[in-house]
Amino acid sequence: MTDSETPRARAFDPKLLFGGRFGGHGGRLGLVYHDHGDDWSELALPYHADLIGDEASGVIASGPILALMDMATSIGVWLKLDAFKAHATLDLRIDYLRPARPGHTVIGRGECYRITRSIAFVRGQAHDGDPSDPLAHVAGTFMAVEGYW
After folding, report:
1. How far apart are the first and last CA of the chain?
2. CA pair distance 83, 106, nearest whole angstrom
3. Nearest by Cα to 137 from 126, 122, 121
4. Is residue 122 within 8 Å of 110, Cβ to Cβ?
5. What is the 3-state secondary structure (H, E, C) of the chain?
6. How many whole angstroms separate alpha carbon 109 and alpha carbon 132?
7. How far apart are CA 89 and CA 85, in angstroms?
8. Per residue in 51-109, pLDDT tens?
9. From CA 87, how far away is CA 26, in angstroms rounded?
């Protein structure tokens, strides 16, 4: 194995973030780590009766899906920076394409595709089992809290 083939040690590891007790709204929703790369993360939102928005259909409410995507894209920023840096959601647009299927876990994949001096640009999608049949797309920006990264 050459040096170029050796994986680089990362300063930020999302598995450690989710390895302990995960609090806040993400913990309340039951978000769990799924996978990640250098500038993207995947989180899972397991189906639970407390998340249902419409009792008659059993469909998960839109709020938990938006929270899932906010967290997945935020982690994408930390991965691209390779550091846990305070930032705030400046804008996060979500386009719902269809409802999530009752009883299915929703997977949210968020990617940070560009970082400027103080703004990170993100995009992502959510699906409930088939990435080629997404239930939502997101696009947004995060702002560095201290003015710059």
Report:
1. 34
2. 27
3. 126
4. yes
5. CCHHHCCCCCCCCHHHHHHCCCCHHHHHHCCEEEEECCCEEEEEECCCHHHEEECCCCEECHHHHHHHHHHHHHHHHHHHHCCCCCEEEEEEEEEECCCCCCCCCEEEEEEEEEECCCEEEEEEEEECCCCCCCCEEEEEEEEECCCCC
6. 13
7. 13
8. 999 899 999 999 999 999 999 999 999 999 999 999 999 999 999 999 999 999 999 99
9. 16
Separation of alpha carbons 131 and 133, rounded Å:
5
Q: What per-residue confidence (pLDDT) applies to 20? A: 63
Cα 109 to the center of its chain, rounded Å: 6
Residue 112 Cα to chain centre, angstroms: 10
Q: What would the two tokens of residue 26 be?
A: 């993400």
